[in-house]
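We read letters as residues; the fold follows as tokens. Both lines appear below.
***
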Amino acid sequence: MNWDWFSYFALVAVLCWIAGAWSAFKGSRLRACACTVLGLVVFGTFISLLWHSLERPPLRTMGETRLWYSFFLPFAGLITYIRWKYKWILGFGTLPSVVFICVNILKPEIHNKALMPALQSPWFAPHVIIYMFAYAMLGASAVMAIYLLWVRKNRCDEKEMALCDNLVYVGLSFMTLGMLTGALWAKEAWGHYWAWDPKETWAAVTWFSYLTYIHMRIGLQQKRRLSLSVLLISFVFLQMCWWGINYLPSAQGSSIHTYNMN
């Protein structure tokens, strides 16, 4: 299995996710779940086959991490749909996933077997996969925040805010676990748990920002729009932590976390 097959697997998966989103909108919960799961199986199969072909986890380059994000976004949408029954969430989860898939198709990267010694740690795969799942859950919370701020506006109720809260709780929990596994990996690979590398600094900023949202929701429950604004700012920080640092002058040539684009 090589990258040339990606478009075919992605097309089938996206069609399944679109069918699932449409079924959810029409009120057919069983069909919506079945189509979404089928799409996840197809996309997950490609990731598994690529992993086998590369003889390493497909997590080294930015394009490879987009693979996982494209997978986890519909997965997060499915969890949200099953738990809270928002019929539009599958569509909102599919849309950004399709965007990332298109980026990978239009801008393919070199996917070879090379893996630097530091990335051969057993902590590498769980650390990045945990982070990608956390990013997907927090991405779903950002979608919900946009919906509440600009569609529902002042009509959002506490139940809808609770959905944002629960997504953040799960996302931040996995982000915390990702930071802990990353610290253990860093200790093994470089001899220290934390070094205030640009990536680590932005990870800390992102973590504290989401923690601020949680505290605002507990202590300032009536300030819903302000809390949602903080949630969106946190998502901007998350993007900076994920890929924005690749373009920071301070990270060029010095950061051990910038993704290898070649």
Q: What stands out?
A: The chain has two domains: 1-115, 119-262. The longest helix spans residues 158-190. The mean pLDDT is 88.
